[in-house]
Design a protein that fits this description.
Layout: E1 25-26, E2 51-58, E3 61-68, E4 73-76, E5 85-92, E6 95-102, E7 105-113, E8 124-125, E9 138-146, E10 152-160, E11 169-173, H1 187-194, E12 198-203
Parallel strand pairs: 1-4, 11-12
Antiparallel strand pairs: 2-3, 3-4, 5-6, 6-7, 7-8, 9-10, 10-12
Organism: Daphnia galeata
InterPro entries: AB_hydrolase_fold
Keywords: Hydrolase
């Protein structure tokens, strides 16, 4: 089955036997882990039909990319200020609507406009820069570790800033090859941090990493 684009059919020779693109060139030096999204926005095309915008897990984050159907290159959209990841919601003419995410503050809606130029900056926030006051006391970090004789693991650590005593830890592995803990705001983690706990969201064998970490 070929992948249908807005204007043409994706050539089957570019796919492997399991339907994975053999090679994707990126227009940035940052790692691209692959496309693991379950759906696309109803409007995900650039005005000229050459770009498809999509969001996918990328290790412990969610990132928005544009796929160029002429060069087959992947372009990562720039992140809004204060955000570690983004989710594309809508594309209309030269405007793109994006949800900026972070583990230390609730999601924010941003809109960007830059005719004919991608990747675009996301300068304007529709929701402002409001934060829940207590989230300013939280810190988030991504840690990687490898168990001897086993695969590499990655986890998101959320913890209170400047704790007054030793911080107890809540570990939450997802344990599923078809799910992933990302950097989207997590109300449960926020709740435990307000009680003085640190929360470790462990990812392994997940969809946001490349095939080598799943086999």
């Amino acid at each position: 089955m070929g992948l249908i684009t807005r204007n043409k059919r994706f050539h089957p020779s570019l796919l492997t036997g399991v339907g994975i693109v053999q090679q994707i060139e990126t227009e940035t030096t940052k790692s691209y882990q692959g496309m693991y999204n379950q759906s696309f926005p109803d409007r995900c095309w650039s005005p000229d039909g050459k770009l498809t915008f999509f969001t996918t897990p990328c290790k412990s984050s969610v990132q928005t990319y544009a796929l160029n159907w002429e060069s087959f290159k992947i372009c990562k959209l720039s992140l809004p200020n204060g955000c570690t990841g983004s989710v594309v919601l809508d594309v209309f003419e030269d405007w793109i609507l994006v949800c900026g995410v972070s583990l230390t503050r609730p999601d924010q809606i941003f809109i960007g406009h830059k005719p004919g130029a991608y990747p675009m900056d996301m300068p304007d926030s529709l929701t402002g820069n409001k934060e829940l006051p207590s989230t300013q006391s939280l810190v988030a970090d991504v840690v990687s570790f490898k168990v001897e004789g086993d695969m590499e693991y990655e986890a998101s650590l959320i913890f209170p800033k400047n704790p007054s005593k030793k911080t107890p830890l809540v570990v939450a592995p997802h344990g599923d090859p078809h799910s992933v803990s990302t950097d989207q705001f997590n109300a449960e983690a926020y709740f435990f941090c307000q009680l003085g706990y640190a929360v470790l969201l462990v990812n392994y064998r997940d969809r946001g990493r490349d095939r080598g970490s799943r086999d």
